[in-house]
Design goal:
The chain is α/β, with parallel strands linked by helices. It has 15 helices and 22 strands. Helix 3 crosses helix 11. The radius of gyration is 25 Å and the shape is globular. About 50% of the residues are buried.
């Protein structure tokens, strides 16, 4: 019989509906009978006890809110009757013992990646264009159009042809309604350089104006992208007079990686004869660089060379039930294999801080996490916000009523492993194991920061659907439910719906996800976000974004 509800932790006093349940429905769970006081839509929760105003609500085993009025057993959880609440946290000495998963079947497994001279291994081979200031965005767009169209990296050909058909129909007096988009997308079919997975462009709005601190942070961010193991060569475009000077960027590149030896081409517009000459020189020299990096080939590497970023966005009430725990199991498998895993989105760790602190292997890391969380929340409050305001209208509509509920489910992506390190924004990952990375919860700002830390793959869970990707790190989209996976199959890669239906366990789904990751890392599967050139990049201005 299909499961109607699920309890996420033995301590919880709420149940999650796995399907739509009507008012007055009799639900039996663990030999207890519940008469529903309201219609309960799938993904939403109902209380399993009579509650008084001020009583605590527990989900995932942690405090997630306090009720605002007296409630009867079987009542629907809403934003009216529940407000965000979370336990205080602090450092305490805990003897954390991790029960690592069985990895015997993966110990000898490899993926085919690009070995860099610094010893790291990339899952892709990209050429990267970096503007030091927003003034160069137009020039980047011109270069992008030229290189993508001519070298086979454009994904807009079908829309160009579609527009052409519409134009012909209009000119001939034909019915536009009869013109259909029926042109299949092709991936890699027309690429001149078969071993160059893409030419990427980091358009942004920074580099001048704002504060000097903003430009310094941007410089470190851009440098981390130039240093990324998925990047084989870099072209830099500069205006000349901006805050972020080319030498500042180069200094940050060398600071992060003293052995940096990738091709680095620099073009400064105020020193060029003309804009046309600048663009022509950049295209020609980059083309010569593409010829060289095309000579690189994939070679076998152990799974311990993978660095996996885990992220959620467009989350729903099933995120913490299916996709996030499944990705968490994948994370645990990779950590046990000696790989690296990055868990970020600090506003979405609100309420589970103590669990993460207790898992930190050093007091230094624990206190760094505490300081970053507190300072971030303080900055958010200074602009009239706070972590409690993180859930979006879409999150709330689909069952994530408080930030603590959203956070407790979101943290499941990081699995159960010890926390070996805590990284501030733009700090690179260096230790094998699970690291926490300070970023906003915002989808693109978080993936931007995760790639900066060194993620070579990102697993991105979603319950509502989001096309988010990253310029240098392949993003694999994981649906929390089968309805979404079918509805938005053009952007979804993996369906975790079988967990909801009971067809697969969290562990089985986690292993499936790892197998998918190995194929993507080897270039055997191209994720939808990469196929679509979904190259989202947004630098973070601290304290402004959740």
């Amino acid at each position: 019989m299909k499961r109607l509800v699920i309890k996420m932790h033995p301590k919880d006093n709420v149940l999650v509906a796995l399907t739509d349940l009507p008012k007055n429905e009799k639900v039996i769970f663990e030999e207890e009978i519940y008469i529903l006081q309201d219609d309960i839509k799938a993904k939403h929760k109902f209380y399993i006890n009579d509650l008084k105003k001020g009583d605590e609500v527990i989900m995932y085993g942690v405090l997630v809110g306090k009720v605002q009025c007296d409630l009867a057993k079987g009542s629907l959880m809403t934003t009216v009757n529940l407000k965000h609440a979370a336990e205080p946290y602090g450092y305490r000495e805990v003897d954390f013992v991790w029960q690592s998963p069985d990895i015997s079947k993966y110990k000898e497994r490899t993926f085919n990646g690009y070995k860099r001279n610094d010893g790291r291994v990339g899952t892709a081979n990209y050429w990267l264009f970096v503007p030091t200031v927003f003034c160069e965005n137009r020039n980047l767009d011109v270069i992008k159009e030229a290189l993508h169209n001519e070298l086979g990296y454009s994904v807009t050909d079908k829309y160009t042809q579609y527009t052409h058909q519409l134009l012909e129909a209009y000119q001939n007096g034909a019915d536009l309604a009869k013109v259909d988009l029926q042109l299949p997308a092709t991936v890699n079919a027309n690429r001149v350089f078969k071993n160059v997975d893409g030419i990427k462009f980091l358009n942004h709005q920074g580099g001048c104006g704002g504060t000097r601190q903003d430009s310094a942070t941007l410089s470190a961010l851009l440098a981390s992208y130039a240093n990324h193991p998925n990047v084989a060569g870099v072209t830099v475009l500069s205006l000349g007079c901006q805050h972020l000077q080319v030498q500042d960027f180069i200094n940050d590149v060398k600071k992060q990686n003293p052995s940096f030896d990738k091709p680095l081409l620099v073009f400064e517009q105020q020193q060029s004869v003309s804009e046309e000459q600048l663009i022509a020189d950049a295209i020609k020299q980059t083309f010569e660089g593409l010829i060289e990096i095309n000579k690189l080939e994939r070679i076998p590497a152990p799974l311990s060379d993978l660095c996996l970023g885990v992220k959620c966005g467009g989350s729903d009430g099933f995120s913490g039930v299916s996709a996030n725990p499944a990705v968490g199991y994948t994370s645990d498998l990779l950590v046990a294999l000696g790989g690296k895993v990055l868990l970020a989105e600090f506003p979405e760790l609100c309420g589970v801080e103590q669990n993460l602190i207790d898992r930190c292997v050093t007091e230094e890391s624990a206190k760094k996490f505490i300081n970053l969380m507190q300072s971030y929340d303080e900055l958010a409050h200074k602009v009239g916000s706070g972590f409690h305001m993180n859930p979006s209208p879409g999150n709330i509509k689909d069952g994530l009523i408080t930030d603590a509920i959203k956070s407790a489910g979101a943290a499941k992506k990081g699995g159960t492993a010890p926390v070996v390190d805590v990284l501030d924004y733009t700090e690179p990952v260096v230790k094998p194991g699970l690291s926490l990375v300070c970023t906003p919860g915002n989808d693109v700002e978080a993936t931007t920061g995760k790639a900066a830390a060194g993620a070579t793959l990102i697993l991105f869970t979603t319950g509502l659907g989001t096309p988010t990707g990253n310029p240098v790190c392949p993003v694999i989209k994981v649906a929390t439910n089968s309805v979404l996976a079918k509805k938005m199959s053009d952007i979804i890669d993996i369906d975790c719906g079988p967990v909801i239906s009971g067809e697969k366990t969290i562990e089985e789904m986690g292993e499936d996800i790892l197998e998918y990751c190995i194929k993507v890392a080897s270039g055997e599967i191209i994720p939808k976000a990469v196929q679509l050139n979904q190259d989202d990049f947004i630098p973070w201005k601290r304290g402004v974004s959740l």
